[in-house]
Design brief:
Blueprint: E1 3-5, H1 11-48, H2 52-76, H3 83-89, E2 95-99, H4 103-114, E3 118-122, H5 131-137, E4 141-143, H6 146-149, E5 154-157, H7 164-169, E6 178-181, E7 195-197, H8 203-210, E8 215-219, H9 225-229, E9 233-234, E10 237-245, H10 248-260, E11 264-267, H11 273-278, E12 290-291
Parallel strand pairs: 1-7, 2-3, 2-5, 3-4, 5-6, 6-8, 10-11
Antiparallel strand pairs: 8-10, 9-10, 10-12
Helix pairs in contact: 1-8
Bound molecules: NADP nicotinamide-adenine-dinucleotide phosphate.
Residues 99-105, 123-125, 158-161, 163, 166-167, 182-184, 186, 220-221, 223-225 line the site of NADP nicotinamide-adenine-dinucleotide phosphate.
């Protein structure tokens, strides 16, 4: 494919670039914490247990101690949520907004409405043009304005890549929004004009620069909409959804949501590393996998 240079992000996006660098630190801290925890657990087991039975006994003792501690903590602060409750109640994305209502947004909306999410679809021509789409998706779907779509718990960005700057300008501050970047870097699809070169950034890093304050998760872009729309649960395994991003809690909530739709979410890491694999020309672009877990 011939790259087409569509120029650097505007000045506001360039300023937001600093913010992106800060975001980029987040996963490294999070990942460091998680893996440090795993190493510690492994080390304890290795020291304490030469065989299988003692491992089980040690684990049982550990669980029992933790349950006692948890009960004590709950008695001390009955209103405080456990980590499990927090991750289930607060991180679940119940409402899903879409910017763009083309094939890929509708594919995800199909599964999301069936799974009980409320889906707020928006497009360029206005909600009145989305009647048929909403009717086909059923009562959990509605056609809304852009302003309403961006109030959802999580927002699917499903517009042509080159429309991103225009979409971004509709909201001066994207702080607190979790946006799933589903775009592919086509400079123009019809007629085809190759792909938009935003190097050295990955496509999603470029998108992140245009949406100051938003948490960006790249996902679904590497799948064909027809495959994304099909039932993801196959006898041979679940359809894989790759995702990448720089904010660990949002990725956790996203993975929960996607698993709830029947897909097998697989975290590819940061927007830089994972995004590079998923974007046009990346090793996983246009590849479809079944997960046999
Ligand atoms: N189709 C696929 O198989 C597939 C798979 C994965 C990823 N993708 C990527 O996902 C994105 C969407 O592709 P698609 O094929 O689903 O849709 P599409 O046919 O490209 O339609 C684009 C949608 O975006 C809306 N839109 C365009 N400009 C807009 C703007 N400035 N503000 C708000 N909405 C705007 C359009 O609204 P109107 O209808 O009102 O014009 C339409 O609903 C693209 O970046 C594509 O590369 C596509």
């Amino acid at each position: 494919m011939d790259p087409v240079d569509i120029g650097p992000p505007d000045a506001r996006a360039a300023r937001a670039g600093c913010q992106h660098l800060a975001l980029d630190d987040t996963p490294r801290r999070g990942q460091g914490g998680r893996s440090a925890g795993c190493r510690q657990l492994g080390g304890t087991q290795a020291r304490a247990v030469p065989g299988v039975r003692p491992v089980l006994a040690a684990r049982a003792a550990y669980r029992s101690r933790s349950r006692t501690h948890q009960r004590q903590r709950n008695r001390a602060a009955p209103n405080r949520l456990t980590h499990f409750e927090r991750s289930n109640d607060l991180m679940r994305f119940k409402t899903i907004g879409t910017i763009g209502a083309g094939p890929i947004a509708r594919a995800v909306a199909t599964h999301a409405t069936k799974a009980g999410h409320r889906v707020l679809l928006s497009n360029n021509h206005g909600p009145e043009t989305l009647g048929d789409v909403v009717d086909s998706l059923g009562p959990n779907a509605s056609a809304v304005s852009f302003d309403e779509a961006v109030t959802a718990d999580i927002i699917l960005l499903a517009v042509p890549f080159v429309a991103v700057p225009e979409v971004a300008r509709r909201l001066p501050d994207w702080s607190g929004r979790v946006v799933v970047d589903m775009t592919n870097q086509f400079a123009e699809v019809n007629p085809y004009r190759g792909f938009a070169d935003v190097s050295p950034l990955t496509g999603s890093e470029w998108v992140a620069q245009h949406l100051p304050g938003a948490v960006i998760i790249k996902a679904f872009n590497s799948m064909f909409a027809t495959y994304a729309e099909a039932e993801p649960r196959h006898q041979e395994g679940a359809q894989v959804v790759f995702f990448a991003g720089d904010d660990a809690p949002s990725k956790h909530g996203f993975a929960q949501m996607v698993a709830g739709l029947g897909f097998a979410p697989i975290d590819l890491g940061t927007l830089r590393d994972g995004g590079a694999l998923m974007q046009l020309g990346g090793a996983l672009s246009g590849k479809h996998f079944l997960f046999q877990g």
